[in-house]
Structure prediction request, 225 residues.
Amino acid sequence: MSQRFEVDALLFDLDGTLVDSIGDLALAANAMLDELGRPARSLDQIRRFVGKGIPKLVERCLADATLSDADFAAAVAVFKRHYADTNGRVSKAYPGVPETLAALRAQGLPMACVTNKATAFTEPLLQMTGLAPYFDVVVSGDTLEVKKPHPGMLLHACQRLGVDITRTLMVGDSANDAESARAAGCPVLLMTWGYTEGVPVDTIECDGLLSSANALLQRIAPRAP
Ligand SMILES: O=C(O)COP(=O)(O)O
Ligand SMILES: [Mg+2]
Prediction:
């Protein structure tokens, strides 16, 4: 039987873990590229570009262009303008996610969303997908100076939840989540359906893979009454 984790709280990644957001990200990325007179990117390419936040996504989309710092900053602003419009248009919670979060909530487990997505987009996306009520704390890609794979965001989430990082479980989809959890000192499980920056998910060092949301419930040890 797979190992069960005794936890006081859970930390969840957003893009590629809870919400299939690639459609809206791709719409915004291609609207930006079109506005800048650059060729469109395929959905598969854009899926590989997601994981380290918006500036990195824009940089990867424009990797074949020579840009000054000012041009790059302008491109990020163009992306954000389009993403403010497309965010939530086709994004959906993955099957079983709302039910699984509800079951965890019913067990009294506090939960935080820890995402490299910027705050301006995280909060509306959680609202539009109906997931916002499950999270006691949200730490976004611009909440701190650092992003995943740095452990800071996870440690900050635990501090705000008032729980010990070693008694939490991180649930993510990429090496950014796995590495940040390892560095912070908590176990980590990865969903098999997410965005891995082109790396096969089963090559990422972690404590196990989840191929359905409700499989997570079997990995949490029952809490002492
Ligand atoms: O914004 C990104 O690039 C990825 O966001 P995530 O941390 O929720 O996967
Ligand atoms: Mg992710």
